[in-house]
Amino acid sequence: MTLASIPAPLELAPGCLWWQGYLDRPAQEALVADIREVLATAPLFTPRMPRTGKPFSVRMSNCGPLGWVSDESGYRYQPRHPETGTPWPPFPAALRRAWDELSDADLPPEACLINWYGPEARMGLHQDRDEQEFAAPVLSLSLGDTAIFRLGGTERRGGTRSIRLASGDALLLSGSSRLAFHGIDRILAGTSTLLSQPGRINLTLRRVHPAREEPDAAL
Ligand code: MD6
Ligand code: FE
User: Fold this and answer.
1) 49-90, pLDDT tens digit by residue?
2) Residue 170: helix, strand or coil by DSSP?
3) Which domains does the chain have, with CATH numbers?
4) pLDDT tens digits for 7-24?
5) 148 CB burial (10 A radius; 0-12, 13-18, 19+)
6) Does residue 173 have its Cβ closer than 6 Å to ligand 1?
7) How far is the CA of 8 from the centre of ligand 2 (A)?
8) Angle at the Cα of 144 from the Cα atoms of 141 and 147, rounded to 5 degrees
9) Measured between alpha carbons, how far is 103 from 105 in angstroms, rounded to an integer?
10) Which of 57, 173, 197, 201 is spaced 20 to 30 A from 145 at the CA atom?
11) Average pLDDT, stretch 82-100?
12) Which of 141, 202, 207 most suits a substitution to test ligand 1, by most atoms within 8 Å of the C-beta?
């Protein structure tokens, strides 16, 4: 087997690394097929804002041992789908491979959030801070239409810049960018032919716990 070399990333800020075109077209197509299989078991659901119950404009699902969910009770990770009650499907191998190739994490990921954006969906400026482990990075992969991604610093009021995240791009928030504010201003519908409809899939791989909880040794 030959190992394709991974191009050097752009460092947008210390610890914020951007690999443009990390996945080539065949790899993108294979990953879309993997995600469709995940969604057949764990269908997209509409998350709601804590307290108000206002629906998000993105729809979500997850794969891996844990999944991120949001409803009136708050944001959290849980091992089962909020509507079907079924455990999340396992990670497709390509996601584990991306984590191993691009992240500097010592531990494997525990959750992959799948975000589906229709042409009108967006995501407000936020930090990913529901994990118990901020030493591990968050790795994102984008498929389908290009998105305008906004990146700020670790203070909500600071300055921001925006980049265009295209299909096949990978973005890592690590180190001093791990808690950077970020969001999606909008989707540029029709910029990719990957998906059968206008829209975008974003996958974010996360480590939730500092170390895997080992079962207690038998006494
Ligand atoms: C998105 N991305 O690209 C939203 N989070 O649709 C994220 O929220 C994100 O790209 C953590 C790390 C990287 C990300
Ligand atoms: Fe995020």
Assistant:
1) 999 999 999 999 999 999 999 999 999 999 999 999 999 999
2) strand
3) 3-144+186-198 (2.60.120.590)
4) 899 999 999 999 999 999
5) middle
6) yes
7) 23
8) 75
9) 5
10) 173
11) 98
12) 202
